[in-house]
Amino acid sequence: MDFATYLGIGVLHQVGTVLFVAVVVHALPGLGGWSGQQVLFLTSFRLLVHALYIPFFDNIRLLPELLRTGELDALLLRPSSVYLQVTTQTVNTNGFGDLAVAGVLFGYAQHAAGLRWDPTRIAACAVLLLCGVVIEGAVQTILATGAFWLGHASDVSKVADEILNNFANYPLSLFGDVTRVLLTFVLPVAMLAYYPSAALLSGAGRPGLAEVTAGAVLCASLSAGVAVALWRTGVRRYQSAGG
To answer: 151, 160, 152, 134: which is closest to 226 by C-alpha?
Structure first.
């Protein structure tokens, strides 16, 4: 497919997500104590994180296929980072469509939600977006490295995508206590958009911006550390087994 087709796919994917959330918000006003404008901002933040994630980490999904075809062997022989080679295998042009829609939606949503910007909030937003990209990249890397042991992990990545799509676009307050704990401390979906959006919107009873920013940095650091450790262990295991 050509560039325009991939771009269109990215646009359609993002628009589809927005329309689905809009339908849910319309059917259930006051969703989890959030107004429609606030849920739209949360969704736009999530989509922007994902759009920024695509050019840096999305190709990690190719690892199971590279292992299956033996192409990873050739990458191991080259004098450069294997991880970097895997994540730069192809240019995901549909990501440009994702980014265009996410950027426009974010611009509209922050205005509709009445977000008031100042230097501190702008800096915190940038850090929270960066942390979200790192967290999503780390989670996908952790799941992809399962291919070193299981031989095929694409289905696991698909399950992760479903979890992100089903939970990351909505207020955490919609879910039960056990689910909230799981989405915060086990699979840190809530750190991708919910906590950052709640802090940026700064409503009553919501977490503070400084605390959430610090938590996001910690979560991103821990997630990246686990991902790096598993990746290195998996590569060593693959090499010791003779590919």
So the answer is: 134
